[in-house]
TrEMBL record:
Gene for this chain: ybaK
EC number: 4.2.-.-
Lineage: Bacteria, Bacillati, Actinomycetota, Actinomycetes, Mycobacteriales
UniProt source species: Corynebacterium tuberculostearicum SK141
Annotated family: Belongs to the prolyl-tRNA editing family. YbaK/EbsC subfamily.
Keywords: Lyase, Protein biosynthesis
Name of this chain's protein: Cys-tRNA(Pro)/Cys-tRNA(Cys) deacylase
Length: 167
């Protein structure tokens, strides 16, 4: 009988551990809102290093079947939907309905990770993430973060980098 990793409690952690990527796992008391702010304070790191995973709708009200995608940006900034749409190769985008985001990813809002999603979505990471040696992403539940290199993150979720931030 093999032992399970004590950290592989979420699909996101399983992806990182199975890939053998250098990482650290942190748990902390999650707040009820502004999850990134709580994470940065609890982890005592620069808030710009804590990234949030946003699910967007690329169909933007066209009435067709929803085409969702992911944008990963610092919690200190807002997403430019125009830039997000362009990065995903469409003309318009809107924030996805939280229920649709949860259903597609398998995670609850505030705990959505770009890794280990039930239905992996096209992903773009804010280009400034590479300015740091490591960044923090949700580990798949509130109060659980994974620290890893942004380029490793991009490789694990087949993501590209682009300017996604609102001015």
């Amino acid at each position: 009988m093999s032992k399970k990793s004590p950290h592989a409690a979420t699909p996101a952690l399983k992806v990182v551990e199975d890939a053998g990527v250098d990482h650290h796992v942190y748990t902390f008391e999650a707040g009820k809102d502004h999850f990134g702010d709580h994470a940065a304070a609890a982890l005592e790191v620069e808030p710009e290093r804590v990234l949030k995973t946003l699910v967007i709708d690329l169909t933007a009200g066209k009435g067709s079947k929803r085409q969702l995608a992911v944008c990963v940006i610092p919690t200190t900034h807002h997403l430019s939907l125009k830039k997000a749409a362009a990065a995903h190769g469409v003309s318009k985008a809107a924030m996805a309905d939280p229920h649709d985001a949860s259903k597609s990813s398998g995670y609850i809002p505030g705990g959505i990770s770009p890794l280990g999603q039930k239905n992996p979505l096209p992903t773009v990471i804010e280009e400034t993430a590479v300015l740091f040696d490591t960044v923090f992403i949700s580990g798949g539940r509130r109060g659980l973060d994974i620290e890893l290199n942004a380029e490793d993150l991009a490789e694990l979720c087949s993501a590209s980098f682009a300017d996604l931030l609102a001015e």
